[in-house]
């Protein structure tokens, strides 16, 4: 994510969502987005669809992949991103990652 007005930070990119991994609900994501600084911020998340194989192999993780997917695709989250001037990107697309 890049927030309008931020500079080109080459090191120490802030990361949010690590402690919430696997439990990143819409409400939690909205709280995280309210605190992101200007510039580049990495969001750690693991969205996806639950399969029988995932449920069996990774049950001990307690991850809620569909909940994270729903949070990341929610209209409320998209509205907050737009309202805060946040654009989604990849590290490859950032100038300092080249």
Descriptive keywords:
single chain; 32% helix; 3-stranded antiparallel beta sheet; two-stranded parallel ribbon; 4 helices; alpha+beta; globular
Verbal overview:
The chain is an alpha+beta fold. The protein is 32% helix and 10% strand. It is built from four helices and five strands; from the N terminus they run ββαββαααβ. The longest helix is centred in the C-terminal third of the chain and has 9 residues, at 75-83. The chain is globular, with a radius of gyration of 15 Å. The chain starts with a strand and ends in an 11-residue tail after the last strand.
Give the SSE layout.
Layout: E1 2-3, E2 15-16, H1 26-33, E3 39-40, E4 42-43, H2 52-57, H3 65-72, H4 75-83, E5 86-87
Parallel strand pairs: 2-4
Antiparallel strand pairs: 1-3, 1-5
Helix pairs in contact: 1-4
In short:
By secondary structure, the chain is of the alpha+beta class. The chain is 32% helix and 10% strand.
* Main beta-sheet annotation: 3 strands, antiparallel
Mean pLDDT: 84
Number of strands: 5
Low-confidence stretches: 2-10
């Amino acid at each position: 994510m890049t927030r309008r007005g931020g500079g080109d930070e080459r090191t120490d990119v802030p990361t949010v969502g690590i402690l919430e991994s696997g439990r990143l609900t819409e409400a939690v994501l909205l709280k995280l987005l309210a605190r992101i600084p200007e510039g580049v911020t990495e969001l750690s998340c693991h969205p996806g669809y639950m399969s029988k194989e995932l449920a069996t192999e990774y049950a001990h993780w307690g991850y809620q992949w569909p909940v994270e997917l729903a949070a990341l695709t929610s209209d409320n989250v998209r509205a907050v991103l737009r309202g805060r001037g946040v654009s989604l990107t990849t590290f490859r697309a950032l100038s300092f990652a080249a």
